[in-house]
Task: inverse folding
């Protein structure tokens, strides 16, 4: 088979996998997502706490969108890496997320505010972060935020 035929075969296989509804989770593993989060962490702006965080958000299409924390002298204006990743993804037209990895150089899961924002889009999102001893931990978002706030709106009659 020629190189061109092999490329067509790979594309056809990937296309069939998408058609069967397989998620991007199989195409991008936790290690790859954590590596992307670590790279994002290197771009963090944390001159006050020196606690740098990076996040890598995986979309259903297989795109990885990153974010890093950005601190401000007015602490309330600081934004977490996870929310930056979500906002970057939404600004790029992505709204269907399957996983997020968070890298902080220490054991750190997403904060409550980030969990709530992520829950707006994907309550059953896979969340990867480093736990005690530096090992990667996987939890589903609905396990980390079991009683998420959900605004119920009534339809106009």
Result:
């Amino acid at each position: 088979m020629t190189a061109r035929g092999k490329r067509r075969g790979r594309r056809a296989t990937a296309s069939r996998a998408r058609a069967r509804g397989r998620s991007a989770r199989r195409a991008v593993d936790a290690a790859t997502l954590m590596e992307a989060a670590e790279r994002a962490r290197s771009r963090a702006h944390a001159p006050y706490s020196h606690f740098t965080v990076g996040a890598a958000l995986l979309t259903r299409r297989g795109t990885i969108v990153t974010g890093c924390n950005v601190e401000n002298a007015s602490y309330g204006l600081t934004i977490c890496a996870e929310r930056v990743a979500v906002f970057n993804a939404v600004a790029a037209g992505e709204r269907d997320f399957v996983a997020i990895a968070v890298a902080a150089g220490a054991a750190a899961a997403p904060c409550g505010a980030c969990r709530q924002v992520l829950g707006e889009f994907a309550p059953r999102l896979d969340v990867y972060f480093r736990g005690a001893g530096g090992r990667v931990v996987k939890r589903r978002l609905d396990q980390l935020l079991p009683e998420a706030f959900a605004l119920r709106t009534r339809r106009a009659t």
